[in-house]
Design goal:
The protein has 12 helices and 10 strands. The chain is an alpha/beta fold. Strands 1, 2, 3, 4, 5, 6, 7, 8, 9 and 10 form a 10-stranded mixed sheet that branches. Helix 7 links the parallel strand 5 (about 155) and strand 6. The radius of gyration is 21 Å and the shape is globular. About 45% of the residues are buried.
């Protein structure tokens, strides 16, 4: 009789975690881990999207901020979680591409340790300079940088951050070697730029827009091939004749590896519905985030995209000698 009960218990557990459970998911709140501090650009995206996801899924999506190790600490928590759909990671170009080369021993394999769900949005980077830097366009900036590179410095949110690597890409494209000043977050770096203690930042539009609109810094170039609706008057690096100087971040949804197909599909469908919500779209685009079209929001596309992004960023990171170890 005891053996029969054990078999029944095992069968019940299998039913609870198998296809039937996947079909009824979610039956309780879902945690979305944001691997950066509250108030960060990724956190803002997560909270805008998460509010609508809660409505679509019929269960609360709880945002949990777990920072550390360039975002790897929070992402690792999701990689090690059960693949039952109740732990989601909001990934970025840093957590799922750049850190695979930047760190000698990354805490996970970004291409193999997750189930891709949906690419959400891309956010271009903008080159901003201190107000009294004697340049008004990219051509003047490049000429000034080449002449004064021994005296200049750029800031970042920290060694190995997306803001650091964006300026590394710019440095390589210009053929210069500007001194890097890492800060503990974007806030202190922006304050020093406004105070004139550093010369420039390569900051994502989401974070830089308020300072540009407030005229406390000068926007020189969008590091992208097309202009941003959030900063329509800022010409791109491509427009201004500088090739290979594109830099951006992106946000995407990931589950732990081996997540059931039914949960992946349901979460992808819900994410698409949230992305198409008029208020969500308006708020994200107002921050400079460019929502991707549906054909780029599929699990298959995201899986291939992560692999291509790892390869893309390996070159400039190795060329620069940048490391976060």
């Amino acid at each position: 009789m005891q053996i029969v009960r054990m078999i029944a218990a095992i069968a019940a557990l299998a039913a609870a975690t198998g296809p039937a459970a996947a079909q009824t998911w979610p039956t309780r709140p879902v945690t979305m881990v944001v691997p950066f501090a509250a108030g960060s650009a990724s956190d803002t995206v997560a909270r805008i999207l998460g509010g609508r996801l809660s409505e679509v899924l019929g269960q609360q999506v709880i945002i949990e901020n777990v920072g550390g190790a360039g975002g790897m600490t929070g992402v690792l928590r999701v990689a090690q979680a059960a693949p039952d759909g109740y732990n989601i990671s909001l990934g970025t170009v840093g957590t799922h591409a750049q850190n695979q080369t930047l760190y000698k021993r990354p805490l996970y394999n970004a291409a193999a340790d997750f189930t891709p769900v949906a690419l959400i949005a891309e956010v271009p980077t903008v080159l901003i300079v201190r107000k009294d830097l004697p340049v008004s366009n990219l051509q003047e900036f490049v000429a000034y940088a080449k002449k004064n590179q021994d005296k200049m410095s750029f800031g970042s949110a920290g060694a190995g951050s997306a803001t650091h690597l964006a300026c590394v890409v710019l440095d390589v494209a210009m053929g210069t070697h500007i001194t890097h000043v890492p800060y503990r977050g974007t806030g202190p770096a922006m304050q020093d730029l406004q105070a004139g203690r550093i010369d420039y930042l390569c900051e994502i539009v989401t974070t830089a827009k308020a300072q540009i609109d407030g005229n406390t810094v000068k926007a020189i170039a969008l590091m992208n091939s097309t202009r941003s609706p959030a900063l329509p008057n800022v010409p791109t690096t491509v427009e201004q004749g500088l090739a290979n100087a594109e830099a951006y971040t992106w946000n995407a949804i990931f589950l732990p590896k081996n997540a059931p197909d039914a949960i992946v599909k349901k979460l992808n469908d819900a994410t698409l519905l949230a992305m198409h919500n008029a208020l969500v779209k308006e708020r994200l685009e107002g921050l400079g985030a460019q929502i991707v079209p549906d054909d780029r929001a599929t699990p298959a596309y995201l899986g291939n995209f992560v692999k291509s992004e790892i390869e893309k960023w390996a070159g400039p990171i190795k060329a620069s000698g940048a490391t976060a170890d």
